[in-house]
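User: Hi! I'm working on a homework problem where we have to compare a predicted structure to a textbook description. Could you give me the structure for the chain below?
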Amino acid sequence: MKEKRLLPLLAVLLAIPFTAAAQRPNVILILMDDMGWGDLPSYQDQRMREGLPAMDNPGLRTLASEGMTLTRHYSSAPLCAPARSSLFTGVHQGHAKVIRDRSFDLPIEEAPTLGTVMQSAGYRTALIGKWGIGGGTEHAGTPQESTAYPTKRGFDYYFGYLDHVSGHHHYPKEDPNPISPTKRSGIWDGDKCVTADCDKAYSVDLLTARAKKWIIDTHRQNPRQPFFLALTHVAPHSQLQIPTGPYPEGRGVKGGVQWLGKPHKLVNTAEGKINSYIYPRYADKKWPMAQKRYATMIARLSDSFEDLIQTLKDLNIDRNTVIIMTSDNGPHDEGGQNPQFFRNYGPFDGIKQDAWEGGFRVPTIVRWPGRVPAGSVSDHPSQFHDWMATLAAIGGVRAPFRSDGVSLLPTLLNKGTQPDSRLYMEYSAKMSRSKTTTPGYQDFLPSRRNAVRGDQQMVYLGKYKGVRTNIQSHADPFEIYDTAKDPAERHDLKDTPEGKKMQPLMHDKVLRMRRVYDYTHPVRGTFAQRPYDAEPVPALRKEEIPGNLVPLTAQSSQGVRRKDGSMKRELYLNIPETGKYVFFMKTPAKKGAKAFVRLHDAHLLDAEYGYKPGAEVSSSMGEGTTEGVIVQTGLKPIFLEKGLHPFIIQTEGFIEFPQFFWQKENSPKQVISHSVFRIGTPPEFPGLCSK
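Assistant: Happy to help. Predicted structure tokens:
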């Protein structure tokens, strides 16, 4: 019996790349706020060579030269709250239970996060910077009110801006937040508000200094324990506020910005005149002041990267630390910032809130000395939810079943075969007060200038991106682009023979990989209704149904054991008639029993995080949410078309077939019998037993 119990663990150890504690690297995830793809040094340096206005940032340039630039990495949404929600929970926007669109300051669901995954791998975790997805009170909140405060979502330590509007103010004490009920920008250190001590504390300096101090203390206290730090800056988002003075001399443990922790002088740069310092290399330029300010904000971030890297070198942990730098969405046009001046959106159309490449293709660099090839570039398409699977692989643990991502380690390490990412986005700009249209910039395609954004959707099918804006109904066609050959999206392929073949496939795909939003907040109501919500999830078309399907039997229901010790079953569920269904599942009451089910590629049943073995879970999207209206949340059934639907079951901790039930609208709840399932050996699902 002991030998049998050890087999799954052994399989896990053989499958993961880093097993010994000394080998597991530290991870620092640096997230910028509204930094555009065009802010990358590769693009700005080209502009300098052409004699155009450009930003010169040595720290960013060094980071890129020492790491890998991911040139086709996407945020999960072109706006901060939904992007951060998907980044930290590892799911795309079609599966976010609470935060989609402009649902700022609502609480992310009680589910695995980057923090909980790294904690499970034995890491010390911290989040320093902007959160904005904690719930509680909109534009304010406290650790007690916020049901998704960072320390309740997997982070051992938290310092920073709790609500999203506070993160618009780079001097939290001197620049009050007029929207907040407290009229202040809340800076929290654990469960204590320290805004009153933030005299002249510029955001980049404040967060960088606190991050350095946490890294130094954490490493010195336990050098054998790896750490995970999410450093989420509020720059270069508006306000376009700038530092009090130059970046301090030196870098690292003894130089650069330093955390003093003294009341009214938390950092060593907390002196001089606030919002006054323009970097000398920009001061004499004949540029608009707003652009000098923006360039200074990027320069300050660039300096902070150098400071962090030198800190790692001083501690002798540089080569055992992964740095991931990215941004939550494309560049903004707020507070006087004109993204045309430096072309912060790069060679694309679109800015923040746009589904075009400039809106959510984001600058991304990964640095890991000795592991990630220095100065390398990858154009493999990937998206925010891939970081959960990637960090799980780095930490040596299985990614949560719920995760929509794939590990990017094959790309980063240039080893093995890189699985394709699930690339999907849905977002509506309808509720935006003043940003309902794409800007009318002359370098944008004429049809996009001042075009209504409305409901937007993006999906990848193979190498092709399908995108549609201002959606009125599910019948609206996708524009189709090969973004590798046509990054500016100038040549719509929808009327080509290949494009015509892809159109119905894309229409089916987007319905098969998302769930209808079903969360209601007691004060703020319900968000994210889509024009395609009322469409049934299409069954497999005749040409999609594999041959040799047979009824499920006790023998063929055993599934296939995976390298990580879990089991996977890939079946087909026969829906007898088109209608609305609710599903239920139970696992055996065995310690460690977990299960997760996808219907096509959509989340269906989740019995993993926080699950009590033997309990029943339902397909309700309200499970795991907080602060919702219980009698209104998670009640929508799933509208399914008659026919066969892929039914993918992942389990851990038991080998039995889970119990399944369903309830068609206006009908009693029933057991789903084996006779309703089919199993086969289709080319896309190898390894299944058909007997």
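For your comparison, note the following. The longest strand covers residues 643-652. Residues 1-16, 682-691 have pLDDT under 50 and may be disordered. Good luck with the assignment!
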